[in-house]
Amino acid sequence: MSKKRQLILALGTNYHRQENMRLAQAHLHDLLRDIEFSSSALTAAIGEFPGTYLNCVGRATTSLMLCELQTKFKAIEASCGDSREKREAGCIEMDIDILKYGEERLHEADWDRAYIQRLLIELYSR
């Protein structure tokens, strides 16, 4: 049996925000049965894409390899309507980033964002 690893995710959307967040969370729950989510927070855009984003973080354990998760998360993003063309136009239907996989920290810049820190504190203080 494969080793279980701690997983921390960040989810964000700036289009059909509530609907896409619910859809992505449902798909993630089907994939990662023990996933827990923080509340959702509206945040101003960071970087090149304008608008207001709805964000949350999640934690789970998984025995899937990192490349398998990335493929599955891309499929979940696509099920929310995400595409390269829409992203180029600034429409982010759903973005799922892996912040932590086992002991490996990814997306280092995201860890310093105030809303990520706040949502992680909320999630881990339950």
Number of strands: 6
Please indicate the percent range of residues in DSSP E strands (runs of 2 or more). 25-35%
Helix content: 25-40%
pLDDT below 50 for ≥5 consecutive residues: which ranges? none
**Global morphology:** globular
Look at the helices and sheets and give the structural class. Answer: alpha+beta
Question: In DSSP terms, counting alpha (H) and pi (I) runs of 4 or more, how many helices?
Answer: 5
Mean pLDDT: 95
- Please give the largest β-sheet: 6 strands, antiparallel
Cα-atom radius of gyration: 14 Å
- What is the straight-line distance between the termini? 30 Å
Output the helix-strand order: EHEEEHHEEHH
Care to describe what's here?
The chain is α+β, with helices and mostly antiparallel strands. The model has no long low-confidence stretch (mean pLDDT 95). It is globular, with a radius of gyration of 14 Å. The chain contains 5 helices and 6 strands. α1 (17-31) packs antiparallel against α2 (66-79). It starts with a strand and ends with a helix.
Could you name the key traits of this structure?
globular; 6 strands; 28% strand; 126 residues; six-stranded antiparallel β-sheet; alpha+beta
